[in-house]
Amino acid sequence: MQLRTLEGLALLLTGLSTSEATPFRPGASDLLVPPPPPPPGPVPGREDSHPPPQPREEAKTPVAHVANGTYLGLWNEKYDQDFFLGVPYAKPPVGDLRFAAPEPLDEAFEEPRPATEYGWMCIGYGSDTSALGNPVSEDCLTLNIVRPAGYKAGDDLPVGVWVHGGSYVNGGSRDPRYNLSYIVDQSVEIRKPMIAVSINYRLSYWGFLFSEEMQQEGAGNVAFKDQRLALQWISDNIAAFGGSPDKVTIWGESAGARSLGMQLIAYDGQHNGLFRGAVLQSGSPVAVFKGAAEWQPYFDALSAKTGCGDVGDRLGCLRQLPWQTLNDVFNNTNPLGVASPIFTAVIDGDFMTDQGANLLKQGKFAKVALLTGNNFDEGTAYGRQGINTDAEFQAWLSSLGLNTQQISDIEAIYPDNPLLGIPAFLIGRPPTVPYGAQFKRAAAFAGDYQQHAGRRLLAESYAAAGLPVFSYLWNVHVNGLPIVFGATHFQEVAFVFNNVNGDGYAINPFATKPESFVELADLMSKMWAAFIHSGSPELNKCKVWPQYTLEKPNNIVFDVNRTALHYVEKDDYREEGISYLLNNIFV
Ligand SMILES: *[C@@H]1O[C@H](CO)[C@@H](O)[C@H](O)[C@H]1NC(C)=O
Ligand SMILES: *[C@@H]1O[C@H](CO)[C@@H](O)[C@H](O)[C@H]1NC(C)=O
Ligand SMILES: *[C@@H]1O[C@H](CO)[C@@H](O)[C@H](O)[C@H]1NC(C)=O
Ligand SMILES: *[C@@H]1O[C@H](CO)[C@@H](O)[C@H](O)[C@H]1NC(C)=O
């Protein structure tokens, strides 16, 4: 099975199908990836991770003078672009800064520093990380900058900041599927040039652990605070690279989009001008948030397990442990046997003050332009496989935290009728093994619960505030996936990145497919670049993507089987189920 073809499928294969972000459990499928290199050892220093650049034509080496030093980048001949890779945006989150809010850099440096190689990925668990050979370290808070060559400090280019997904447990900005060269190239082609930036942030428990003592210290939502600090660094420094701090658009997919949803509602929507637009592909801030009380049992068990249970300052003790000790627990080599809440925002009274849906309904969100959307069949990546009976369906809903009343309501709204399920185009029931007789039912519920309900509330909330909203649906069956997954989660990414060669995919999603696939990638990547450049995805005067308003809540639907590659449709599908979820579960 080709893990690299589908984040969602990887989730399915590894049992990560029911929750927003359950810790990954390595499965047999991991054996398909090359063996990991020797572990990086105790927190490699930055000096080691950035060997000096290879000798090259002096004049072509891009140089950027930030406030406290100089970075030497890398010129890419093929795309005529300047790269600055692996640039740190925070102090390494190690020692006293482990499980703590990140701190800004505060040192000047004399010698110019090379910025020619991607930095370490944050320690994570799952195929997005292992497929790249686990190049991980705690010291991972870096970002990458890609700009068309020929621009310089003061040029004020718009900036798109990519935040990767991976269920909050794996992934990183160095993943070749997130190669920024192609979309930057597209931006130049449409004469709306942009700079693209991609960032890392802490993952798994390294970024999501929480407890009463962490709350006391302001150490909640640490992964999201990493992202925030990266945005602050960009605001403070991007001018030195030719970008404009006033023209930043945040842009992410899956857990990356969920993260950015959190940034929209963080601090009750006060975003301090860190961004002026947001692109959220398959992710929103709508999820069920817990707090310190629900996290405490896990924190207590972790402390006890690692010898930090009986000390006065348990958090201080956890911070001093060798990273491998914690890694063994988090990676399940030395299992704790106590479940934590699933990874998402926590209500810490600081970064996050309430449930995401409530903040949206109260208008407590960043007032910026929004582009957001979902794939038709997201649910096939989230619905549990192997459900054959009503009792099994009920048990699954219960495991997601639904109560008895909610379960019986959901059973009625999402009946076991394959004519109604997801994927809708699939007639009848898919094979019982491995999918389960009720797979289409599970997928219909899971897609709305995990994705579609949040998108609709987000789009409505932004439209109600009079902000420009562009909403899409995406319906394409890519190469390399079983047809039963339909237009599933993650698959639009290769199109938005215009990655038509399939860099980083085990099977190229475009191979064997008609030219319309390449044309759609061309169209979408240009629309995204246009939105990042100027807040609208329109490519010419003839408008094709209507704004989403309360009077006319329309989605553009991307579909390679339509001559125009798109059509417009009212956003009223599965109204009953989505309303139920928004009014009874996400409150
Ligand atoms: C620059 O260096 C000074 C001291 O050397 C420090 O106070 C300041 O925080 C630094 N600024 C940045 C952006 O690193
Ligand atoms: C994107 O991929 C191309 C082709 O492999 C490569 O030349 C380029 O360096 C990559 N761009 C970035 C930003 O990594
Ligand atoms: C986690 O465990 C898997 C499977 O044993 C292994 O391949 C991977 O390298 C481990 N990850 C880390 C960061 O230690
Ligand atoms: C588009 O058409 C192809 C060829 O007929 C078909 O295999 C595919 O399922 C269609 N896609 C969608 C989303 O219906």
TrEMBL record:
Keywords: Hydrolase, Signal. Residues 19-60 are annotated as: Disordered. Its EC number is 3.1.1.-. GO terms for molecular function: carboxylic ester hydrolase activity. Residues 45-60 have a biased composition (Basic and acidic residues). Belongs to the type-B carboxylesterase/lipase family. It is an enzyme of class 3 (hydrolase). Residues 1-21 form the signal peptide. InterPro entries: AB_hydrolase_fold, AChE-related_enzymes, CarbesteraseB, Carboxylesterase_B_AS, Carboxylesterase_B_CS. This is Carboxylic ester hydrolase. Coiled coil: none annotated. The keyword Ribosomal protein does not apply. Residues 66-562 form the Carboxylesterase type B domain. Residues 33-43 have a biased composition (Pro residues).
